[in-house]
Amino acid sequence: MADMQSLLTEKRVFKPEKEFAKAANWNKKKIAEYRKLGEKNPTRFWAQMAKEHVSWFSPWKKALDWKPPVAKWFVGAKTNVSYNCLDRHIEGENAWRRNKAAIIWEGEPGDSRVITYGQLHREVCQFANVLKSHGVKKSDRVVLYMPMVPEAAIAMLACTRIGATHSIVFGGFSSEALRDRIADAGAKMVVTADGGYRKGQAFGLKAHVDEALKGGRHPVERVLVVKRTGQKVKMKKGRDIWYHEEMLGASTHCPPAKLDAEHPLFILYTSGTTGKPKGILHTTGGYLTHVTTTTRAIFDLKEDDVYWCTADVGWITGHSYVVYGPLSCGATTVMYEGVPVHPGPDRWWELIAKWGVTIFYTAPTAIRTFIRLGDEHPERHDLSSLRLLGTVGEPINPEAWMWYHNVIGKKKCPIVDTWWQTETGGIMISALPGGVNTKPGSATLPFPGIHATVLDEDGQEVKPREGGLLAVRHPWPGMLRGIWGDKKRYRETYWGKWKNTYFPGDGAHRDRQGYFWIMGRIDDVMNISGHRIGTMEVESALVSHPDVAEAAVVGRPDEITGTAIVAFVTPTGKAKAGASFQGALKKHVTNEIGAIARPADIRFTTALPKTRSGKIMRRLLRNIASGEEPTGDTSTLEDFNVIATLKEGDE
Questions:
Q1: DSSP state of 17
Q2: All structural domains of the chain with their residue ranges
Q3: What distance in Å separates the CA atoms of residue 383 and residue 406, rounded to the nearest whole number?
Q4: CA nearest 321: which of 167, 425, 452?
Q5: Computed from CA positions of residues 563, 568, 571, 576, in that sequence, does the dihedral angle turn out positive or negative?
Q6: How far is the C-alpha of 88 from the C-alpha of 95, rounded, in Å?
Q7: pLDDT single digits (tens) 73-95
Q8: Residue 550: exposed, middle, or buried by beta-carbon count in 10 A (0-12, 13-18, 19+)?
Q9: Strand order, beta sheet including 516-521
């Protein structure tokens, strides 16, 4: 890896505010105690967390059964995710929460709903009974292909209530991608909607389901349809049923199934894969322990918090930190249907002020978009309710971190920069806001009980400030239990690089204080004349220039250096694209990192190709930089015109 001088010498350090630290769920003393236990005996640490944070119908006989690479957590114990997210909050001494807001939902057109724990419990029981009435049983798979509406969370919880295994397919995926996932999971039912709203327009979903089920070579027996937009859809007799009609006569009584801790909870297919979809399998007790514990500790959830994670439920962040983690903690969680900049660039800030959001968790890509749009939009709204900020999805560059801290957090909100994956189930590396100092751009330290390290290709730990590969040396409860239907692929992909050690596929460094600096996928590490340089480091250098709003860096083949650095840059409104600005940026990168990181080519663009969840599609940029046609699945691309514009600029 590169020497990382520009990041590892980061001198800005932010200590937790005294008042925040004093009132934190996990203060400095508790963090030290848990770290000590987690380091010495991670299994005992997680068993303690399971007892503190999860309600069980029967106890486990063994906390961990580890036969690498297969882990079983809380062996023999019985629990239910729906019970933990709902029933325990409306029973006994917690019965007062029956009237507490569980979900605050805002539709893009401006319609909204506030659903209490009591109401959510009733609707989940009703829909669980609807599922059972149509033959869905324990261990059957149900595919959810939904917009961001409350019925998506209701369907998730209803599946968990009866022990059906859900598989959510993001609403931006094509009918072909949906077909593949239905077939791979062997789904018995699809729950969808007529459509949803995005950028002021109604888009269709039911039509994609119809296309995916054409030809009859699938196991789907029923399609349940939520009426969201009112657009006209075709309903196939004997197969398609309206959600609202089924709910009318459904009983509100449905006891939660007592499920084994290792019962399959959900399958989630990783995005951007080519060929056969890769279905990540998560199970019940361990996953719930992990997400409940990390939600309470990392987001410092209090009873009166209004918590908003901006992710779609179609991604793992939506599973873990929109639905299951917050609701298991008895929190109020916000769901928003639309895009961040519709009907105006201040939409998110308007919603924070409207609902009094106290905890805000979003992606660095979104933050950089708002930087480009200008400070005047958040400054138009009262954001004083905010007390904690978080980032997720990719490494955040230091200057975006500082903007988030200064403009959104008003220099008073701790920032938790979290690293984790679909495969890990929950957060693995993050600051704990009550007792960990933060550094802009660093995810800081592993969560207690997580044995993360940085290794070289041979599995040896690297020295501080030396680059290497991120690794996890001990199982954790939220870890994936396999790839659906493909044990060999699971073993080879995640456990085949080093003995009994999990390989996430990310590059990383640690500084002298032991803080982790995640460099992103090793696919995004470039070999320049024998030097390994992370794209994130060059991007960080570029966006530290005051006239750069956003940047994406890729490598293209080069006969002399092996790889040449190509940067796609979105300037701020005041910057003038051209040769002079190109030269200034190349000099800036050289000053920040060194001559080895100087881009061979800088291309200016008004927008970068992103998925609907906000991630930059670097794979497509690599194609364009190399003069190739964009390849692979582009069904989640937010704006296809961006690719056309970039290709035109290349001609």
A1: P
A2: 529-650
A3: 12
A4: 425
A5: positive
A6: 8
A7: 999 999 999 999 999 999 999 99
A8: buried
A9: 452-455, 468-472, 506-510, 516-521
